[in-house]
């Protein structure tokens, strides 16, 4: 038998690489993974795109989603996690594919953590600023509307924090990490001095004296 042609050897090499990576899917991805460099680019780019999408979605979804997930929120998160897993690795179940994708995500997270540590402006952009929900016993309607927090929830949070009435609360603040902080009048004054840029919204509603909690 004669020696295989150069074209046949190249085709066999490409086929062997594709089998090792087990990459299938859309035509662009298949074409890009035709070479080792293309395979690496795809497996680095896909996790970055998914990471950026998740950061944007959580940022737009509101700080509350980070700490207080409802039944509907959990259902969405489970479905999204399954869908995005396929977006990150596709049908590539190889060890090297998983390691490259995971390494990309760890490296990206580390880079963003260093950026947020060094840049207050980046922190405000990516994580947001604290949002005041209640100030001096008054509900900030616009802030609560943006975060989809009801008055009943505010009452419950106040009671859990040891305040019998909402009017006794100096400040109730939704932190960038989704936690809700509740402070009395004295602690509220100190907090205001430390956080002059906190979002207070515009409209307020005064609670009726003697209203039931």
Architecture overview:
The structure is a single chain. The longest helix is centred in the N-terminal third of the chain and has 26 residues, at 36-61. Strands 4-3-1-2-5 form a five-stranded antiparallel sheet. The protein has 213 residues and is of the alpha+beta class. Strand 1 (131-135) and strand 2 (138-140) form a beta hairpin. It folds into two domains: 6-126, no CATH class; 129-205, bsu07140 like domains (CRO Repressor, 2-Layer Sandwich), CATH 3.30.240. The chain has helices at residues 6-21, 27-32, 36-61, 71-89, 95-118, 120-127, 141-147, 151-160, 185-194; strands at residues 131-135, 138-140, 171-174, 180-183, 204-205.
Average pLDDT: 78
Q: What structural category arises from helix and sheet content?
A: alpha+beta
User: What ranges have pLDDT less than 50 throughout 5 or more consecutive residues?
Assistant: 10-23, 206-213
* Overall structural domain count: 2
Q: What shape does the CA trace take?
A: elongated
- β-strand number: 5
Helix-residue proportion: 55-70%
Helix-strand pattern, N to C? HHHHHHEEHHEEHE
Number of helices: 9
Q: Which range does the strand content fall in?
A: 5-15%
* N-end to C-end Cα span: 92 Å
Largest sheet: spatial strand order: 4-3-1-2-5
Give the biggest sheet: 5 strands, antiparallel
Radius of gyration: 26 Å
Pfam families: DUF421 (PF04239)
Organism: Thermoleophilum album
Family: Belongs to the UPF0702 family.
Subcellular location: Cell membrane
